[in-house]
Amino acid sequence: MTMAEVTFLVVDDDEIDVELLQRAFRKLKIANPVVRARDGLEALDVLRGTGGRECLRPPYIILLDINMPRMTGLEFLNALRGDATLAQSIVFVLATSDDQLDIYKTQEMLISGYIVKNRMDRSLEQALSMIDNYWKVVELPA
Amino acid sequence: MAEVTFLVVDDDEIDVEVLLRAFRRLKIANPVVRAHDGLDALDVLRGTGGREKLEPPYIILLDINMPRMSGLELLEEIRRDDELRRAVIFMLTTSDDERDILTSYERNISGYVVKSKAGKSFEEALAMLDHYWKVVELPI
To answer: Per-residue pLDDT averaged across A97-115, rounded?
Structure first.
């Protein structure tokens, strides 16, 4: 079990989606630090400590939206996996798309899990509750 | 929701028995397929060597220290295989060696679980897996 507190890096351009996520965290009493990036480029700044952002130290888990301006989720994953210091980062994709091709292309980038946000049979909270479960039992890259 | 199979790759009979008992205690009723080491696991994933091919969706629970082909070697082989490379893999191992952890994440496993902490926390890890397969879209 990872003892150091795990930060969630939320990468999402949609203010409402981010607010819904924060509310779900609060409701589930998930009190981990949350850092927000508006898109892939900002997320890379956060992970590298560039562009005026403070460098985010591990352990962290990235919660990644797919549809974003400037740099899409897939482009971000490409950049992440191509960077030797960041390639091992853990990424859960929180997507609205349940399109099989989108899912396939994203899984090709070797993420920890592709989660469809608004599935009929299961709420966002249930998904976040799993992630809360996950960081407590898994050894994360240090 | 298609039923998810757990492919358990572990050469130690006792460890496998402990795992199966924990699944039963937690009422995790998913099908479980057992492979004895990395080579056996590849046979299962490919339908070679007399093994029936395991169809997705599945989650691989992978030990590290095994004869013939270790967990890390199997991981490399899976990531090199175009058909298998998206497989969701959790390391389930006694090794808490930082190098094993880093190497595993460099091959983009979904999570690394140290199983030396037996009892409640091992069950918590399995409960998390039971939660995980219900939430995540697995490769098919």
So the answer is: 93
Q: Do the Cβ atoms of B113 and A90 come within 8 Å?
A: no
Half-sphere exposure of A5 (CA within 13 A, CB side): 9
Query: What three-state secondary structure class fits A61?
Result: strand
Reported as a single tens digit per residue, the pLDDT across B2-60 is 689 999 999 999 999 999 999 999 999 999 999 999 999 999 999 999 999 999 999 99
ipTM of the complex: 0.91
Beta-carbon contacts of B29 under 8 Å, excluding residues fewer than 6 positions away, are B23
- In whole angstroms, what is the distance from residue B78 CA to residue B84 CA? 6
Structure tokens at B31: 């099908």
Residue B57: is the preceding peptide bond cis (ω within 30°)?
yes
Percent of chain B with pLDDT over 90: 91
Q: Is B46 on the interface with A (CB under 8 A)?
A: no
Considering only CB atoms, B137 lies closest to which of A88, A103, A129, namely A103
Q: Which of A107, A134, A137 sits opposite B139 (nearest CB)?
A: A107
CA B81 to CA A54: how far, in whole Å? Answer: 38
B121: three-class secondary structure by DSSP:
helix
What is the helix (H) or strand (E) element at residue A114, kind and residue range?
Answer: strand A113-116
Calpha distance A74→A102 (Å, rounded): 10
